[in-house]
Amino acid sequence: MKKGTKENPWQLKTPPLSAEYEMYLDVKDDKEVIVCTVGKTVLLYDARCLSDLHNMLKEHGDWMELGAADEQKPAKEGTVEAWGRSENNPVGGWYGLKKGLRGRFGMYIPPLMEELGLVELEHNAKNNRMRAK
Q1: How far is it, in rounded angstroms, from Cα 109 to Cα 49?
Q2: Measuring CA to CA, which residue among 47, 53, 16 is closest to residue 133?
Q3: What whole-number distance in Å separates Cα of residue 48 and Cα of residue 97?
Q4: pLDDT single digits (tens) 36-70
Q5: 2 or 123: whose pLDDT is higher?
Q6: Could you tell me the residue ranges of all domains in the chain?
Q7: Which residues, in sequence order, are bridge partners of residue 33?
């Protein structure tokens, strides 16, 4: 059975390996999305983020800090989280699609990219980084 479907989601852990969650691809409002379920909370991300982030990391050419933050908190400059909500990224803003829950891009997307073989990801207690393969 194909992984990454609603019936067979990816089972992932946050970069510090401290929490489990699941993700799968779906279509919502004619847009391919990544559905991320953390406990009872459901987040949505534009699926385009996988290729866009991978391309940005390849251009960056080095490790980049994740910098995960909730939507209501500012993202540390120069981090994956800051890029995931920047007006200068390919979608011109948030990859998170659910108002109020658009943050945490730097927490939940990197482990999926690691699972897909696109990146190397650190698994320290905090201040984790990633880079393109």
Answers
A1: 8
A2: 53
A3: 12
A4: 999 999 999 999 999 999 999 999 999 999 999 99
A5: 123
A6: 10-132
A7: 26, 46
- Exposed/middle/buried for 39, CB within 10 Å: 0-12, 13-18, 19+? exposed
What's the 3-state SS for the chain?
CCCCCCCCCEEEECCCCCCEEEEEEEEECCEEEEEEEECCEEEEEECCHHHHHHHHHHHHCCCEECCCCCCCCCCCCCCHHHHCCCCCCCCCCCCECCCCCCCCHHHHHHHHHHHCCCEEECCCCCCCEEEEC
- Determine whether 75 is exposed, middle or buried from the number of CB atoms within 10 Å of its CB (0-12, 13-18, 19+): buried
Contacts of 12 (CB under 8 A, 6+ apart): 20, 21, 22, 23, 108, 111, 112, 115
CB 91 within 8 A of CB 46: yes
Query: Comparing C-alpha atoms, which of 106, 110, 104, 108 is closest to residue 71?
Result: 104
Give the pLDDT confidence of 75-131 residue by residue, as tens digits. 999 999 999 999 999 999 999 999 999 999 999 999 999 999 999 999 999 999 999
